Amino acid sequence: MDPNSRDTQPDQIKMDPNSRGPRPDPTPAKKPTPGLGLKPGVQIADDSIAKAPRGSLYQRDDEVTKRWGKGRGRGRGDQSNGVGRGVGQSSPDTFPPREQPRSNPSMPVRSSNDQSNHGRASTIPRVPSSGQNGQQSRGAKGGKGDAPNRKRPINNGAAQRNANTIGMRAQWITWPSICLRLKGLPATTTTYDLWSLFERFGSLVSIELFDRNGVRDGGGRLRFTPPPKSRFWNDVMNLTIQGQQVKVTAELQQYQAEPIVQAPNGRMNQPSLSLTMKELQFGMLARENATMALKTVENNTTGEYTLTADFKQNCIEIVFACDMKDPRREDPGISHPSPVGRFECIQQYKANISFAHLKKLVFVDIDEDNWALVIPLSSPPVFYKETDRAVSHSTHRNTWNARDVWNRTVDITYDTAWLKDDPVTLRKASQFIDIGRWTIYRLVFSKSALADWDKIKLGLCDFNINVDDTTLKEFPQISARPLKMWDILEPQLINSSGPSDNLALLTNTEDVYLPYVVRYQLEVCISQGVLNEFDITSEFLHKLADLSNGRTNRRDRANDLLTYIAEPPSGWRIEDQEKLDPKRIYDPMSIFEDKKATSHYPEVSIPEHCQWIRKVVVTPTTMYLSSPLAEPSNRVLRQFAHYGDRFLRVQFTDEKTKGRIFPAPGSDQENALFNRVHRTLLNGIQIGGLHFQYLATGNSQFRENSAYFFAPTEHLTCDNIRNWMGDVNHIRVVAKHASRLGQCFSTTKAPKTSPIGQNIVHIKDIEHNDWCFTDGVGKIAPERAKFLAKSLDNTHKDYSFVPSVFQFRLGGSKGILVQWPDVPFNELHLRPSQNKFVSLSKGLEVIQASRYSVATLNRQTILILSCLGVPNFVFENMLKKQVRDYNNAMQDPQVATRLLSKFLDQNGVTTAIAQAIADGFMETKEPFVMAILQVWYAWSMRLLRDKARIVVEQSAFVFGCVDETRTLRGYYESPEPAEKKKDRNSLPQIFLQVPKMGMKPGQRAEYSVITGICVVGRNPSLHPGDIRVVEAVDVPGLRHLRDVVVFPAVGDRDIPSMCSGGDLDGDDFFVIWDSRLIPPEWNFPPMVHEAPESKALDRDVRVTDLISFFVRYMKNDSLSTIAHAHVAKCDSLLNGPKDEQCIELAHLHSNAVDYPKTGQEAHLKPSLRPKKFPHFMEKPPNKTYKSKKILGRLYDLVAKMSFNPNLDGPFDERILRRYKLDGKTLEAMRLVKRQHDKAMKQIMNQHEIETEFEVWSTFVLTRPRVGTDYKRQEKMEPVITNHKERFRSACMKVAGSTETDMLYRVVAAAYYVTWEEVQVVQAQAKMGKIAQGSLPRERMPFISFPWIFDHELGRIARSEAEYELEEMPKPVMASNAEKENDDAKFERLEKSAVVIEKGGEIYDEDHPPKEKALETDMATTQPTEVELMTDEEIVEVEEEEETGLDALARLGE
């Protein structure tokens, strides 16, 4: 058979004539009749793409050509318009498509004039095959039926003579699916080859090609669901594959029934159940119990309309078809150069809704024939678009599945190319269905489907998904209202001069102008689902404008009002449990009657090294805006602080239920997501009338998929800012160019400038054999270091010990500054390796100072040490002892204190907890201390189980620097084999001075110099040579250096570069001197890694180049994939990390680490991808095996741990009885606590943390949706530090003095009001207002407020003075009136220099109020005491008071 004859007789199979097997009908299959809008003979070329401007990377989302990386392009036809498009066709400057393998003539390669059916197979009406009664045969999960009008071969008895069907002949045709095992396939066979040969015989849903160690073994497997109508295969078949005749054997495999799915409650369910819909409506809730349809899709066209409950995948799938009509047919005013109707088609879509996304469903009985199911979602599900099967294959994959025909989509619109030049906005134009905003789905079914629905309902209930039954009268469908809001806020310019002018002018009377801050906050409320644009009327907007125009005291009251309703509620109400959307405000006008809303003052005071930042999260289908949040600042934000409102931090994520956008190298299924990111970066974002443009990306932001945007002004543009940041035009490697710009966005603090000026002295690097021993190391004077420490830390610490090292930024320089006595005060010594570019910024900025913590093992280091000879029982014994100690620590204060004092963390939290235990709070079961102890326990145990994070007591985790005295012995290569080199005198030397072990809490640290054999390394360590054996020695000339490991400056190669390619610009190193962990094999040859050569442009780098690299990195970053593959391979291969495959993966990992700087992605070969994973990696069961090696054994030793704090413990009587507190102090502290709790809630929401205890301790248990939790504890430290500083300052102002007695009374008052709030909630539970035992965590009040003074609380508790109260005080309930104006009062409190308390007034001594303006602010009502044992005495006092608006007006006078 001529392989080139496939165009006339595709996919013919030749059988051995002697086998008397079946032979397909030689008549070629008929092409399907063109569907709606499909005209035979239409040319494939697309002018809208071909004419795209140079530099544009935009294409239609469904053109899945390879744009973001290397590989083979699918070359599919455009599925949104039914017209095939050329392979890899793209606009100029787009990324090249993946080339079709020319050696494979069976793969479809179409030119722009190809009229083949491959490009539109899934976008035209399908003609039912014979014998199917006009119904399509479709397999599970998108499997399609037979091709139209194709005849199947009849089995003329061959099956009776086929040995592998004996005993199965009568059964296989009744099975749900069959599998055929193939042997004898050529090594170059692709999944497309097999699909093109066999897809005509039935619903082929999966193909698998077998290989061994990356080499095809000639085997494969086909699965048909349902089975073919008749048998078409034989023992031996002569097939034509890629132009050559081959004999292939086929064997029918015994059917294995799909297992029944067990629900969480133990009930068994079918894997999936489906219903056929009559129509599907997209819309919103018009009110709590009514829907409003904004688009209806009826089941009256060709396509599938089903709802499937998949209990195996824990999701609901809604499959539907859209008849795409050109919108210009209804609105001729729409202008676009493409021909009208050119892309009209019927397109199949699918929405995937995870069970975790579902809270409640509503069954609506419509009439005697129909019923509806309402699915309300708080955020969009994941949407897919069906593509042509013929182009859904990849030569790089050994598998194909029917799911591969479903590609992600971000829009349901007539033609996505219409959007290519539009900025991203909350209001999406030209949408057939706005899938990002219309998240209420109403599915209509026939009553005949009720029996199947009952089965689905029962299964959903097993997964805790409730279904409410109601009627159409109780849950009606409301007619769609016109959307006016955007037109009122963004009126169209009127250019006509005809009679319609008067009408247009009349329309313009509704136009409303809102300032940017108000517009932004309004869009925050809409994006978060608090308000819906369909509910917003002209009256509401006018009211907002009037409120904004009446601004007082430099405050915009409309902005404050919207900020209040956008904040998540701090309390919890039981009635919200029953609501479909608890946060939704259906009547926006009602907020003007809310006293709390109208009197709200957002936070205005933040630490000086923080700034207010607006953040936007862009998802595939919509975007979410956040109210301004206080974040640590950086150089750019400080320099342009006056333009703070115009900066935007943008993060790109998948839908809320998915988390991050995972890289997809070599795949096209996610390309729509990356197109969306690219369009946002290229065209910008429009919010509140401002157009934000891409500015730059910080280095840490790269891995978080985020960037900074800026809205240019007439005098300041993004180019101006980038030019100010530094001169980087000489850097023509795009990745390095982006990295240098990102250097300016490092989170830093700007210390006070030197009082006698600053002089930069340039000194030489120490280099040898092309290795730099001083890469990133500079020098600073000890007195200047002390000056820096004082100006950076305002907690009044003892500065007798000053950090030895500071990680810094200075203009275009970076690295560390190390104390050396020979440096004058006003000099900074910098080296060439630290100077990256020239910048206008000349101020010194500090990222962090050196500090000590113990080191921990992890999975990578355990694997390396194990392969170097450390016995496995050492790790097991260490882990068992640590688990025992943790368990004992929860019961024994002495054990807890010992562990916490030894297992020091970088943030000093363990020291603080140990001190609290020493103060007796564990013995009294104080609830906050016990909760912090529990979160430390849960965090430590989770890390033990998930990461094998074993704490090593005899260790340090510190910065690295260099020995400027050149005293330490360096590393020298030896001609002897590595395994024979165990001469201690030849080991390289280090110097390390750290605090002594076993210091008691509060005791001044004493330091000791470590001596002896150690191992040193850096995380992550993947290569056996990444961990080095060294000798620690004492050098008197280095004793001024503490909490830092000093490396030699001599030798053949520097030590840091051997440790996973490290340097000394701020890298952390672990040093371990525990003799049990010193490996018998010393100094395995270090990895010599040659990074891929960076490709430089032949011109200056443009912004479009930076944007392209950002998207390329998102798509092709394979760092985590390679790291996971390395762990799996090390576990499965005999030689572990020493195996050649693992060594290759270690090199690949280094390439992936360098990707942000080199721009060269690391490609993971199929042979290096594990097929099975060890059980400790917690992969799906079908990809998991039971590991018997060290990591599997360690994993099995640790039980899974959860954090459930017990807050029922008694508050400490020693503090509650210590002072007799006056009412005014308590009232003021209630005010500060409410503000503290609000700020704490914002931190939790911003960083997606569940409890205040995780925030306070920085022991965060929840994983971030984007990025990794690596260094999350380090990132949270400045956040909680700033929070504590702010509220400590506020409390000190209430005290009016830092004198011990006055301050301690305020601290005790903070403790009292916290206890009081808890007592009230517990009393309400006892009275029956809240069901006991079911109080949700959200309902419990925050209790961390007084612990911003943890040291002072300990002093109060341990005081030997007499108690001022003879018995425990009684709790008091704060009145509503007391709470109404506390935002304004707290703002004034923070602004005050000294607070004076007179008659309940709080004001600045230098600016007393006029006519006692605050008399009603603080002195409102008398508190009401509460006896917990007498339910009737719990009364909440409410008094009428002037409205918040009146109070605000008076404050502005």
Share in β-strands: 15-25%
Structural class: alpha+beta
Give the helix tally: 36
The residue fraction in helices comes out at: 25-40%
Radius of gyration based on Cα positions:
35 Å
Count of individual beta strands: 50
Overall pLDDT metric: 80
Shape: globular
Short descriptors:
single chain, 1453 residues, alpha+beta, 50 strands, 26% helix, 18% strand, disordered N terminus
Explain how this protein is built.
- A hairpin with a 2-residue loop joins strand 33 (805-810) and strand 34.
- With 1453 residues, the chain is an alpha+beta fold.
- The protein is 26% helix and 18% strand.
- Strands 20-14-15-19-9-10-21 form a seven-stranded mixed sheet, with helices on one face.
- It is built from 36 helices and 50 strands.
Give me the secondary-structure topology.
Blueprint: H1 47-50, H2 158-161, E1 178-183, H3 191-198, E2 204-212, E3 215-224, E4 236-241, E5 244-252, E6 261-262, E7 268-269, E8 272-276, E9 279-287, E10 290-298, E11 306-310, E12 315-324, E13 345-354, E14 360-365, E15 370-376, E16 382-386, E17 399-401, E18 406-408, E19 440-446, H4 450-462, E20 466-471, E21 477-478, H5 485-489, H6 501-508, H7 516-527, H8 538-549, H9 557-566, H10 595-598, E22 610-618, E23 623-625, E24 629-632, H11 635-639, E25 647-652, H12 671-683, E26 685-687, E27 690-696, H13 699-704, E28 706-710, H14 718-725, H15 734-742, E29 759-762, E30 767-768, E31 771-772, E32 777-780, H16 782-792, E33 805-810, E34 813-819, E35 827-830, E36 844-849, E37 853-856, H17 859-867, H18 872-889, H19 893-902, H20 909-918, H21 927-947, E38 951-962, E39 989-995, E40 1007-1009, E41 1012-1017, E42 1028-1032, E43 1044-1047, H22 1055-1058, E44 1068-1072, H23 1103-1116, H24 1119-1132, H25 1140-1158, E45 1173-1174, E46 1184-1185, H26 1190-1196, H27 1213-1216, H28 1223-1247, H29 1252-1257, H30 1272-1295, H31 1300-1327, H32 1350-1358, E47 1372-1373, H33 1376-1380, ...
Parallel strand pairs: 10-21, 14-20, 22-25, 29-35, 32-34, 38-43, 39-42, 45-46
Antiparallel strand pairs: 1-3, 1-5, 2-3, 2-17, 4-5, 6-7, 8-11, 9-10, 9-19, 11-12, 12-13, 13-16, 14-15, 15-19, 16-18, 22-23, 22-24, 25-28, 26-27, 27-28, 30-31, 32-35, 33-34, 33-36, 37-38, 38-44, 39-40, 39-43, 41-42, 41-44, 47-50, 48-49
